[in-house]
Amino acid sequence: MANTSTIHIKTDFDCIVYDYGQELVTTTADTFCNFELRKGIHELTIVYLEDESISKTITYEVKDADCDYQLIIEIAETICDKAEEQYISTNYSYAFDLYSLAAEKGLSKA
Predict the structure, then answer these.
(1) Which pTM value belongs to this model?
(2) In CATH terms, is domain 4-73 a member of 1.10.540.10?
């Protein structure tokens, strides 16, 4: 693709990556995957594959075409936030599962 750059992205969980709502790629936890983005500002939304209500959105700028960019996105903290919501709503079993996932990735808050 002309005027694009290669993005190498790694997430801490299996996720789907969207750019302004358009699906770009499905990632595998802790493994870099590659895709192309045009030069400019992008709104990347990373959605946890096991629960689409857990997501993280970042604004990312591709400054130069024909360059490689490496991006590491951690959503363990977002999963922990969702666990807290579930705990408050007395969904203790699901909260425990989410806290456990976040703790597995080393998040001390979990």
Answers:
(1) 0.90
(2) no
What does DSSP say about strands 22-27 and 68-73: parallel, antiparallel, or unpaired?
unpaired
Do 20 and 43 touch, CB atoms closer than 8 A?
yes
| Residue-range domain boundaries for the chain | 4-73, 75-105
Q: Which among 8, 10, 7, 24 has a CA at the least distance from the CA of 65?
A: 7
Per-position pLDDT tens, the chain of length 110: 568 999 999 999 999 999 999 999 999 999 999 999 999 999 999 999 999 999 999 999 999 888 899 999 999 999 999 999 999 999 999 999 999 999 999 999 89
